[in-house]
Amino acid sequence: MGTDLWSQVRSKLNDNYPEFSNFHQSVYYQQLDKTVEYDNALTLINQASGFDPQYLNPFIILVTVGENLNWEPPPDGDLYHFSKAVRDTLLEHYRDYKWNSDIRSQNPSINNAATYMIYAYFEFDKEDIENWCKNYLYLIGQDPATSPVEE
């Protein structure tokens, strides 16, 4: 994902959701015995997107987290762990669809794991899913149906 896209998303976040976009958080990494300061939500969520084999497109996490929090900072001040929990839940739904033929047969109108992941996350609520899709398209500038789930 190019830096132009990151800049575009950051700019749109700043314009529309400045309090969310400029969220600051310190994250302590036990394995490094180090605290890292993050000065914006996009960088923090990107870090929470994980590494192989637990990686998920950070823009999918961004929009899901944003929709979850109504584009406000998290009430407990911990956007990093909230974002990781969202990533883990999304990945669980993705894998459920990919590896469970019963889920696929029970959802014949859904044709791929990425779509199921978002539908299941929002408990098949049509309005929530439509809002997610609109925000993804606006912020990222790509149809979510054509965006990669994993990089």
Tell me what the structure shows.
The chain is mainly alpha-helical and 151 residues long. The chain has one domain (3-146). Helices cover 58% and strands 7% of the residues. It contains eight helices and two strands; from the N terminus they run H-H-E-E-H-H-H-H-H-H. The protein has helices spanning 3-16, 18-21, 41-48, 58-68, 79-99, 101-106, 113-121, 126-140; strands at 25-29, 34-38. It has a two-stranded antiparallel sheet with strand order 1-2. The longest helix has 21 residues, at 79-99. The radius of gyration is 15 Å and the shape is globular. The N and C termini lie close together (9 Å). The model has no long low-confidence stretch (mean pLDDT 90).
Number of domains: 1
- The shape is globular
The total of beta strands comes to 2
- Euclidean distance between termini CA atoms: 9 Å
**Share in β-strands:** 5-15%
What is the number of helical segments per DSSP (H or I, 4+ residues)? 8
- The Rg value, from CA coordinates, equals 15 Å
How confident is the prediction overall: mean pLDDT? 90
Uncertain runs are none
Largest sheet: 2 strands, antiparallel
Class inferred from helices and paired strands? mainly alpha
Helix content: 55-70%
- SSE string, helices as H and strands as E: HHEEHHHHHH
Strand order of the largest sheet: 1-2
